[in-house]
Design a protein that fits this description.
This is Copper(I)-binding protein. InterPro entries: LpqE-like, Lxx211020-like, PCuAC_sf. Keywords: Signal. Helix content is 0%, strand content 41%. It is mainly β. The strands form 2 sheets. Strands 3, 4, 5, 6, 7, 8, 9, 10, 11, 12 and 13 form an 11-stranded mixed sheet that branches. It has a two-stranded parallel sheet with strand order 1-2.
């Protein structure tokens, strides 16, 4: 893969699921010869098929990254204790280490609903970020897109929903301090029926970008 960097003042942005994510402070381009994206292009979905990644610093603090594929090697480091909330059981939670100055980070967890009533993950919050959003990655017309789920993430009765790289995930927005491998990240999840629960996500290694 050919990588073109206009200035070397960049940080790789952690994207849950290994996709291109454009925060309002970021600019991103995934097409051969294309210029950095405008604010109108940001977070609307990003083409993941092109082999060229451009990283631009047009304002002294613009950062940006491309993480193609389904997670770029992001794996669960293990260590999160199983947590029960009513009929819900949460396991396998984790996040990954971030680079200095990186403003967003992804969070993942497995949610099992052993009850007879559907539930919905409606919100998440954490002291380590300005706010936390519920996101999903989808492939539309050969374009990988990320979008917030304003109505939450359904957790049907008798089923297991996995928040994982390349699919549903938490997005920590405006992270105050980069996540450090070996550390932990606290996050509160709120469900429509079951209520709220506090999780401690172990921080695994940062996944390398494949060239």
């Amino acid at each position: 893969m050919k990588v073109t960097i206009s200035r070397l003042t960049l940080a790789v942005v952690s994207v849950a699921a290994g996709a291109v994510f454009a925060h309002p402070s970021l600019a991103c381009s995934m097409h051969d010869g294309a210029a950095a994206a405008t604010p109108a292009d940001m977070h609307a979905g990003h083409n993941m098929s092109a082999p060229v990644v451009k990283v631009a610093d047009t304002g002294g603090h613009q950062m940006h990254a491309a993480m193609a594929g389904s997670g770029m090697g992001v794996v669960d480091p293990g260590g999160m204790e199983s947590v029960k909330l009513g009929d819900l059981e949460l396991t396998g939670g984790f996040t990954k280490a971030m680079l200095p100055g990186q403003p967003v980070g992804g969070g993942f967890v497995v949610i099992k609903n052993a009850g007879a009533v559907d539930d919905v993950l409606v919100a998440a919050e954490s002291a380590v970020a300005d706010h936390v959003e519920l996101h999903e990655m989808v492939m539309e017309n050969d374009v990988m897109k990320m979008r917030p789920l304003k109505d939450g993430i359904p957790v049907p009765a008798g089923e297991t929903v996995e928040l994982k790289p390349g699919g549903l995930h938490l997005m920590f927005m405006g992270v105050k301090e980069p996540f450090v491998e070996g550390g932990t990240v606290k996050v509160k999840l709120t469900f429509k029926n079951a209520g709220s629960v506090d999780l401690v996500l172990p921080v695994g290694p940062a996944a390398p970008m494949k060239m």
